[in-house]
């Protein structure tokens, strides 16, 4: 009887550890401290009889699902590799976008990784994640939507700054609507789930993984508040209803044994870098397999990647996949009007120069070309968008695109060239100089000196755009032209391969920005030339489209 009672205590202890683990893998230190020092006087050492062997890294999948009670078929709504190293006190969270493209044993088809649990089960999902990241997994922890909402509600809600209005119909019988207003607010379980699940058209899966990490971090901070400890008796039973795991007792106790030291732990988060592709008419998140392992390995050392969007993806694809990319089933008209990331200039901030969404990439050229924004200065952003595979600018209406905060935003019909004008930044009023002598009034009958008229700008006369090197297999695309005394310029390429791939046609979109004293007014249609390419530009425009043919083709007149 005593032995059974002790076993029940151990199991209860494991469930408590597991519940707190799900509540926010990394947030249980205060709760564990209470249980360690409680009336029972239990400790990890007394539970297992030894303290050795609890110093090794534990890595596992933290899976959020849409699984309903009694259902055996479900998709993974969030997939996170959680890893804790007790020796370095480093906690790593690596989000795997649910649209990540994978293949399954015995099939020639492509699948999104979130469908793997439904098709092949959790063991296959673990194999896929290990294959992508190189991280050996000790097991998984799974919870569903109901469990997530219960956790947040038991905590009393969480405070989140919702970055924009969010409306979407998910199609689920439960949790079927997302309807949130922008701003800092208290979210209950249902609204927190809406926030974590929202998938906007701009960043899609990448924005969603960032929001999921934000929710986990916020819930973690809430768990550390002293008042939360009083809610644990209610929190633990709620969690136990909705949690599944195959983690061993040893792994759970490793996490529990390290919980006391979470006060000075380091937490790093990362989304697995990649790029959005269209394959046979379907969208996927594609990763460079070699770089994915490098990023995952660095994260375990506490190092994060600077950019989620990986420009090396297309070049890393095998020829069979590239062929299917080159001929998508259809092209959809770009329908993301709001240009992400281009915000109102603020004094002292660095201008944004690149844009990425799942539908297009883009470059931003600022005039004046200040390294940092200056007060009292009016700025114009020329944005050049390049559609990704499966998308087109044909059919985009005039002035379709929007840039928040710009006084005017313009684009021609069917064009991805957007001009956004921002009003002058306010200047700090100058302090009066009390030591300065008052200005002498004009002598009687002496007229004021007239202001010197501004000299008229000179039309650009350098027609040949230099520095745009024709694509060579294995070479990296140049991003800027050779600067001249009359203008500077940036280059964006389509397809956005890096390096160039043999046998492909490439289009360089060159945006020329006149220097002071020069203007594009009066420039004729197709005035500019680019060596090795068929170049075209509208009248009065410095946006030059240069098409470089495949290596086995010749430009007209070059035979």
From TrEMBL:
| Residue ranges of domain Cell envelope-related transcriptional attenuator in the record | 75-223
The record's listing under Pfam families reads: LytR_cpsA_psr
Q: Which InterPro entries match?
A: LytR/CpsA/Psr_CW_biosynth, LytR_CpsA_psr
**Location of region: Disordered:** 426-457
Membership in a protein family = Belongs to the LytR/CpsA/Psr (LCP) family.
**Protein name according to UniProt:** Cell envelope-related function transcriptional attenuator common domain protein
